[in-house]
Amino acid sequence: MSMKNYQKELDNWFKEKGWKYWQSLSILARLYEECGEFARLVNHLYGEKPKKDDEKEQELEEEIGDIIYTLICFANSHNLDLDRSIRKSFDKVKKRDKDRFKKIE
Amino acid sequence: MSMKNYQKELDNWFKEKGWKYWQSLSILARLYEECGEFARLVNHLYGEKPKKDDEKEQELEEEIGDIIYTLICFANSHNLDLDRSIRKSFDKVKKRDKDRFKKIE
Amino acid sequence: MSMKNYQKELDNWFKEKGWKYWQSLSILARLYEECGEFARLVNHLYGEKPKKDDEKEQELEEEIGDIIYTLICFANSHNLDLDRSIRKSFDKVKKRDKDRFKKIE
Amino acid sequence: MSMKNYQKELDNWFKEKGWKYWQSLSILARLYEECGEFARLVNHLYGEKPKKDDEKEQELEEEIGDIIYTLICFANSHNLDLDRSIRKSFDKVKKRDKDRFKKIE
Questions:
Q1: More exposed terminus of chain A, fewer Cβ within 10 Å: N or C?
Q2: How far apart are CA B75 and CA B91, in angstroms?
Q3: How many helices (H) and strands (E) does chain B have?
């Protein structure tokens, strides 16, 4: 009951502005770009020669925000329910863990 | 007040299990992998020779879920607030739009 | 004078078969997918819990091959010269290094 | 007999400078970053609202060059043979095509 609000807010904003979501492959390309910027920052902070840099660390939130924003655009343009997305993924991890537990016993 | 719940739920789960989050570069590699699977699916459904495939379309939610799951792991291991992330990204888009409007006038 | 041969070989093969290169955004999506498979393998071998695995290590060459194959497809469909690509990138690194040297003096 | 020369040239350069290749996960992060820049450019030129832009088109070669440069770094640090990489990938495509042909008959 939570990503729904973000999805709705963005959708209202797009409607109000008369904007259309991009086609799927373009949103995917944008996702690639945003993840690349995130990778650059992560490598700068925690990569080969980690640099302590408080200012840059605050940018992590922004970079991840841009990735999630892109995913919301994709989800809205395909009527996907991101709360169900996250729930499915959580359930999968929990199930995988349970199965591992059984094997050990 | 919404991604917070997912972040908390995952963190509780990790604590209960005694799991540790991966190091930053490994989570990044996983993000790359998950996005690659999403790309494969998007290309299959909407790429060069789009295929109508209802079953595959339902997998879109799962693939995006895995991406967000990976981002939550990263956020939790760095004490990032994903609601603030999304808010910042939304604000940026809205601000960019406002500036564009000003220019036109 | 070397990537040229690979580009030519692939182009002849496509012509012979009557195949067309995909549109740019689809090749990009494929690049994403191939890089994701590479990331999965790298994470398996050198990530959080590195696993010594000779068989998997041999797959590294194949995964990188698939990435370069995808780049050749893109280059051919846009008449790009990959030898010039590599030369430009090499020159940039060497130039950057020279500039760094000057600064130190 | 061709990527070999590029691999050797870069390796000599690194030896001469006393540089070391980065660890695998850092090179992977760099690959992500470089591919993201390529994605940005491809989306600009051929995405949602394709823009004819000759200057930008010339940058395509540079962006691909940076990706291949990153792959050469990875290959050198793992003693991979990129000519064999490309050959394996070409063979796979040709084999796949042959199998497809058999099925049709």
A1: C
A2: 20
A3: 4, 0
CA distance D29 to chain B (A): 7
**CB C9 within 8 Å of CB C88:** no
Contacts of D40 (CB under 8 A, 6+ apart): A29, A33, A36
Q: Chain A contacts of B69, Cβ < 8 Å?
A: 86, 89-90, 93
Domain extent listing, chain A: 3-96
Instruction: Give CA–CA dist C41/A69, Å, rounded.
Output: 28
Q: What's the pTM?
A: 0.93
Q: List the one residue out of C55, D85, A30 whose CA is nearest residue B89.
A: A30
ipTM value, please give it. Answer: 0.92
Dump pLDDT digits (tens) for D41-86.
Answer: 999 999 988 888 888 888 999 999 999 999 999 999 999 999 999 9
Contacts of B19 in chain C (CB under 8 A): none
* CATH fold label, B3-96: Helix Hairpins (1.10.287)
